[in-house]
Amino acid sequence: MILARIVGTVVATRKDPRLLSSKLMVARPIDPHGKSEGNYLVAIDTVDAGVGETVLIVSGSSARMAAGLKDCPVDAAIVGIIDTIDVPGGN
Questions:
Q1: pLDDT by residue for the chain (91 residues), tens digit each?
Q2: How far, in Å, are 30, 58, 69 from residue 64 at the CA level?
Q3: Is residue 60 part of a domain?
Q4: What is the pLDDT of residue 81?
Q5: What's the confidence (pLDDT) of residue 18?
Q6: Residue 50 belongs to domain with CATH number
Q7: Is 28 inside any structural domain?
Q8: What per-residue confidence (pLDDT) applies to 19?
Q9: Which residue range forms the structural domain that includes residue 46?
Q10: How far apart are CA 60 and CA 32, in angstroms?
Q11: Looking at the domain assignment, is residue 66 inside a domain?
Q12: Residues 14 and 30: beta-carbon distance below 8 Å
């Protein structure tokens, strides 16, 4: 699972028919303290996330297990909107 912040959207007028009606978002992985790390990724949105929100993303075969994506060509799916992250004693 990946912690990430939504930084934008993707509009694709031509795409695989199994992706029709799906919202694609640009996300940037973050550490538990909110600091950006890693490369940007595009993820299919299953929870109606918005720009600026912190989300939970699954990738690989786990992404295809998300709601309604069993046979979709996806590698990353947003499966949760995070309210808070608590790291006791963390730096």
A1: 999 999 999 999 899 888 888 899 999 999 999 999 999 999 999 999 999 999 999 988 787 777 677 788 888 999 999 999 998 875 6
A2: 22, 9, 5
A3: yes
A4: 97
A5: 85
A6: 2.40.50.220
A7: yes
A8: 86
A9: 2-81
A10: 22
A11: yes
A12: no
Tell me the C-alpha distance between 46 and 77, whole Å.
7
Q: Give the single-character DSSP code of 76.
A: E
Distance (Å, whole) CA 87 – CA 34 = 11
**Element (DSSP H or E) covering residue 78:** strand 76-81
CA distances from 65 to 10, 19, 37, 52 (A): 22, 15, 26, 25
Question: Is there a domain that residue 86 lies in?
Answer: no
Q: In 47-76, which positions are buried (b, 16+ CB within 10 angstroms) versus exposed (e)?
A: eebeeebbbbbbeeeebbebeebeeeebeb
Q: Count up the domains in the chain and report the number.
A: 1
Provide the whole-model pTM.
0.89
What pLDDT, on a 0 to 100 scale, did the predictor assign at position 36? Answer: 95
Other C-beta atoms closer than 10 Å to the C-beta of 77 total 25
